[in-house]
């Protein structure tokens, strides 16, 4: 029985040929169907197996853990606006008809006739309002001046009633009355202020129902008698050290708020802040704890104690843990908290691949086409589309509008894919907004997705402003704390609750919300919480089971923003729900993030251990130990197994056939060599496992021996070798932060052993693989990374290393635009991209930027956005970035902060840069006292960016002191100015008026040679960019031509 269970598990974990009955929807020819099934499986298996191994890697980790600190406060307050502002929609004019005799009305099919217009409208008696002898009709046709109107062939008198609202009018909602305190008349309604904190959807005035939408007030600062009041927002509560003096607080826009002390008679909830290890630039553990699907944390201690998460404050890495008041629990100080590792997202990606392979439906044919051979004509030509009226792009003389319109037309016309590529600030979000509104006008249902919540919320916060036809019925999928505050009312649970409050039961409320939504918005992984997808998953006997039935293609279009940060397998999760796919992004900005551990595990499983060891031995002994300066090769004796020796021979033989063989002058003696003179001249001597004792007296004493097992009586051998190779060993120890204290050979021994034995081959090549991919767009790519990556790869063609590189690192946008680089016997769209003719019909580049002052955009335009097809990131003529701040000579400057030799030893922190940036912020804050708003009449914003987490940590400490906000992590406020602190990678898609970029490095450039990352860093500022760093170092370094040119051009 147990064997059968295991066999079934193995069967389910493999990808098999898809079900023929599903593939027949694409073609009736049995041979064509079978060929398509095989092609699909062959293309998808690598993705499926990679995810399989990634899932195993995560399951082996078991849990994530992180340090934390408790946040204490003296008072908890609720703070609410004194008045709430509502937008009231203007109702249609009411047509009032005065009848002499009400009895002329029939029960059904009454006729209202307009003589001059010769128009007839039919109405039933029970569908209108009747008051004595008057009837009231909501109709689109209104009588012309002096026009004769008849009801059932009898002439009647009539009036047209238009609703009017005024200050002090009384409105009603659910038996409560509200006086209009302030009113502003709009073309399509009114903005009113009433004294309430409720989110009221309908108000009544003189018996008429008025639709209302509440404006969401958000504040960055509060003032108590004109003195700033300091607080920390924790969910719906505000924590502070002292109570306000006055009863009314005011924010930076002079809006009034009232406060109330929250008296907790029971134990308070536990508020903690997560503390990341800033030495790890590749992984931020707190992100796992703040993910949508994490609902509990635990500590091991003497016994496992679990806490439910009540609220997450993501920007400040704060968790509010629900206290069990009946059985109070306490966190153990100085013990990390943990979460179980959830592989649900990886399994969802894997299941999407399985569904596409096993049971595709007709609407998913174009996803299958991505995997088909390009030898045949695959993609249909698009038809021309004309658009008569535009919602946002209505001024074709506005720079860039023609390109934006062209894409909207291509996206509507496509039968499959459309690709929008746009540099920073080029109007990608505006184009998405226009496309959504045009599609909704055509009655289409849309899924809007992206890899981050911010990208989605940016669209939702703006779309209702342009929805003049009232077509948008948006639904936001995601947990409450992940959704932007301004659009929280669109979140699925909030919408369902509104219907429940209006008298519907939960099932009916849910049905209404899902059926009425025509714009569903979720992150690529957050879509898993969309009920039609979530309900496909069941848990049986503790095991996760997902339906294998075909995925219903609910949406006509899927629009995915930031698709340049989304892998193919991540893209598939939401893509399976749609019939057409619109991809938006910029392949010159940041690429997808991939867990290095997933690559390591896949490489370890995919490449035989003997081959791994063979490559590692050759690399470390013949390449890594060569002293180029003195042209000295450290010779080695290495103990190997028979299979390892065979793999070494194959590897070196294959390299010997190449013109650029780096080992052509190296001499290797294999285990059967006994000639002492040949052995003495060898760079590497291989001896068979177990033969050391027999052969050590006849082997040269000039070589360093690396044995499978260390023997105590061989210490003298190591001591002798140490005298010859002290320089090489000390260099290695220094690199590994293990420099010997007493400078004796025995201390070197452990450092030396790790040179070959400690880091395995998969780890050595995986980080190089990621770096090589990051450097793929550099003009000069022949560096240490590329050379050593090639040396560490297996020598066979189509080896697993290349397959994993091409499958996991490129984005879906890059793959179908230019290809993922995979060498395959059959060219496909996913490996080679669309052909030029097909791409032209589907692809548009936005060439104009509207964000940056021209000085700021210049470097990126010339270095990154100029090619044989022309130039993007061109400056719009409408950019207005004039200001009165004259501290700098240019809008793009470099403040030189030289790094001392002592500071260069810690090359991911630079305290002088922190002091300089804090000083510069102080100067700007003085300026904002006189000029508190920018040209858009908004509060000024500052972004402080850096490439490294350790530098971010010390910048954070400086900002905490400057702003007196000890618990803030990323978003600070002072004197009405928003100050943002992020690493460059976290700030893509965002912008600020003034940007400080902390360069940190002074010894080597690390991963700063990634031009995608550099491009993001340089294009965030609107008014001013200030680079702070060691200018002389970047001027002289040769690791990156782009950084060198930046240091040369940027003025001081």
Describe this structure in words.
This protein is of the alpha/beta class and 1052 residues long. Among the domains are: 65-70 and 275-341, no CATH class; 484-517; 603-726 and 742-809, no CATH class; 848-1049, 3-Layer(aba) Sandwich (Rossmann fold), CATH 3.40.50. It is 33% helix and 23% strand. The chain has 33 helices and 52 strands. The strands form 12 sheets. The protein has a 7-stranded antiparallel β-sheet with strand order 18-17-21-22-2-20-19, with no helix packed on it. β32 and β33 form a beta hairpin. The termini are far apart. Mean pLDDT is 88; it is low at 5-9, 711-717 and 722-748.
> What is the H level of CATH, i.e. the homologous superfamily of the domain at 848-1049?
P-loop containing nucleotide triphosphate hydrolases
At the first level of CATH, the class of the domain at 848-1049 is Alpha Beta
The SS-based structural class is alpha/beta
What's the β-strand tally?
A: 52
- Give the neighbour order of strands across the main sheet: 18-17-21-22-2-20-19
Whole-Å distance between the termini? 76 Å
Strand content: 15-25%
Query: What is the makeup of the main sheet?
Result: 7 strands, antiparallel
- Judging by the overall fold, what is the CATH architecture of the domain at 848-1049? 3-Layer(aba) Sandwich
- Overall pLDDT confidence: 88
Low-confidence stretches: 5-9, 711-717, 722-748
């Amino acid at each position: 029985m147990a064997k059968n269970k295991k066999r079934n598990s193995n069967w389910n974990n493999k990808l098999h040929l898809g079900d023929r009955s599903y593939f027949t929807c694409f073609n009736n020819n049995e041979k064509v169907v079978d060929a398509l099934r095989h092609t699909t499986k062959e293309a998808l298996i690598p993705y499926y197996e990679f995810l399989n191994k990634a899932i195993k890697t995560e399951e082996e980790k078991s849990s994530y853990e992180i340090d934390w600190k408790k946040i204490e406060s003296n008072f908890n307050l609720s703070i609410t606006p004194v008045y709430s502002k509502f937008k009231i929609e203007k109702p249609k004019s009411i047509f009032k008809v005065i009848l002499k005799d009400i009895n002329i009305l029939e029960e059904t099919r009454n006729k209202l006739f307009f003589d001059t217009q010769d128009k007839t409208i039919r109405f039933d008696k029970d569908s209108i309002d009747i008051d004595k002898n008057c009837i009231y009709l909501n109709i689109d046709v209104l009588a012309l001046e002096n026009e004769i109107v008849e009801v059932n062939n009898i002439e009647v008198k009539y009036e047209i009633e238009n609703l009017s609202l005024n200050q002090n009018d009384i409105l009603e909602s659910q038996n409560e009355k509200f006086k209009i305190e302030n009113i502003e008349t709009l073309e399509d309604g009114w903005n009113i202020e009433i004294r309430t904190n409720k989110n009221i959807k309908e108000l009544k005035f003189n018996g008429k129902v008025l639709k209302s939408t509440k404006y969401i007030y958000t504040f960055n600062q509060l003032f108590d008698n004109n003195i700033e009041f300091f607080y920390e927002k924790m969910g719906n509560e505000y924590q502070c050290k002292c109570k306000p003096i006055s009863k009314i607080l005011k924010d930076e826009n002079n809006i009034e708020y009232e406060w109330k002390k929250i008296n907790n008679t029971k134990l308070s909830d536990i508020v903690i802040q997560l503390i990341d290890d800033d030495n790890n630039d590749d992984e931020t553990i707190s992100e796992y704890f703040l993910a949508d699907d994490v609902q509990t944390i635990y500590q091991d201690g003497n016994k496992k104690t679990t806490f439910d998460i009540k609220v997450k404050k993501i920007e400040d890495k704060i968790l509010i843990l629900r206290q069990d008041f009946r059985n109070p629990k306490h966190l153990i100080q100085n013990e990390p908290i943990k979460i179980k590792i959830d592989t649900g997202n990886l399994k969802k990606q894997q299941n999407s691949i399985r569904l596409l392979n096993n049971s595709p439906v007709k609407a998913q044919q174009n996803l299958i086409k991505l995997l088909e051979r390009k030898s045949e004509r695959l993609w249909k030509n698009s038809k021309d589309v004309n658009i008569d009226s535009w919602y946002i792009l209505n001024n074709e003389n506005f720079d860039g509008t023609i390109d934006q319109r062209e894409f909207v037309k291509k996206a509507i016309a496509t039968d499959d894919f459309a690709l929008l590529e746009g540099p920073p600030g080029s109007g990608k979000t505006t184009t998405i907004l226009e496309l959504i509104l045009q599609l909704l006008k055509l009655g289409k249902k849309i899924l809007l997705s992206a890899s981050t919540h911010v990208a989605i919320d940016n669209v939702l916060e703006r779309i209702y402003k342009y929805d003049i036809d009232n077509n948008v019925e948006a639904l936001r999928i995601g947990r409450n704390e992940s959704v932007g505050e301004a659009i929280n009312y669109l979140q699925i649970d909030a919408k369902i609750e509104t219907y429940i409050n209006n008298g519907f039961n939960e099932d009916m409320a849910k049905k209404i919300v899902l059926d009425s939504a025509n714009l569903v918005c979720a992150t690529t992984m957050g879509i898993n919480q969309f009920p039609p997808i979530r309900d496909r998953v069941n848990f049986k006997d503790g095991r996760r089971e997902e339906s294998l039935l075909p995925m219903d293609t609910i949406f006509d279009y899927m629009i995915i923003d930031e698709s340049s940060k989304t892998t193919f397998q991540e893209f598939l999760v939401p893509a399976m729900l749609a019939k057409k796919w619109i991809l938006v992004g910029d392949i010159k900005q940041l690429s997808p993030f991939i867990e290095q551990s997933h690559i390591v595990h896949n490489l370890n499983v995919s490449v035989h251990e003997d081959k791994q060891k063979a490559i590692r031995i050759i690399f470390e002994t013949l390449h890594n130990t060569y002293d180029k300066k003195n042209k000295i090769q450290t010779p080695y004796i290495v103990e190997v197994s028979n299979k390892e020796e065979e793999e070494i021979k194959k590897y070196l033989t294959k390299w010997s056939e190449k013109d650029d063989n780096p080992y052509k002058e190296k001499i290797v003696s294999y285990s059967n060599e006994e000639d002492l003179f040949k052995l003495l001249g060898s760079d590497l001597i291989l001896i068979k496992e177990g033969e050391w004792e027999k052969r050590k007296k006849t082997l040269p004493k000039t070589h360093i021996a690396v044995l499978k097992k260390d023997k105590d009586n061989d210490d003298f051998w190591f001591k002798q070798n140490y005298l010859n190779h002290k320089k090489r060993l000390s260099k290695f120890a220094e690199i590994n932060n293990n420099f010997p204290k007493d400078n004796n050979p025995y201390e070197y021994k452990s450092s030396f052993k790790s040179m070959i034995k400690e880091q395995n081959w998969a780890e050595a090549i995986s980080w190089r693989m990621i770096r090589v991919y990051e450097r793929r767009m550099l003009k000069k790519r022949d560096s240490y990374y590329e050379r050593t990556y090639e040396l560490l790869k297996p020598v066979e063609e189509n080896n697993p290393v290349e397959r994993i590189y091409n499958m996991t690192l490129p984005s879906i946008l890059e793959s179908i635009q230019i290809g993922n680089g995979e060498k395959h016997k059959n060219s496909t769209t996913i490996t080679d991209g669309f052909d030029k003719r097909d791409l032209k019909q589907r692809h548009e580049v936005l060439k104009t930027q509207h964000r940056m002052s021209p000085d700021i955009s210049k470097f990126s335009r010339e270095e990154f956005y100029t090619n044989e097809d022309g130039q993007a990131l061109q400056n719009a003529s409408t950019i207005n970035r004039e200001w009165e701040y004259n501290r700098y000579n240019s809008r793009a400057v470099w403040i030189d902060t030289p790094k001392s030799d002592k500071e260069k030893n810690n090359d991911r922190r630079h305290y002088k840069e922190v002091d300089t940036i804090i000083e510069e912020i102080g100067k700007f804050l003085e300026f904002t006292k006189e000029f508190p708003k920018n040209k858009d009449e908004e509060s000024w914003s500052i972004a402080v960016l850096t490439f490294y987490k350790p530098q971010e940590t010390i910048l954070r400490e400086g900002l905490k002191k400057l702003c007196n906000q000890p618990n803030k992590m990323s978003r600070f406020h002072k004197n009405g100015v928003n100050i943002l602190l992020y690493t460059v990678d976290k700030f893509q898609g965002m912008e600020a008026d003034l940007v400080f970029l902390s360069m940190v490095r002074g010894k080597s450039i690390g991963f700063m040679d990634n031009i995608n990352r550099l491009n993001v860093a340089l294009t965030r500022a609107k008014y001013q960019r200030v680079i702070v760093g060691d200018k002389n170092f970047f001027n002289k370094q040769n690791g990156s031509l782009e950084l060198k040119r930046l240091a040369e051009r940027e003025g001081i």
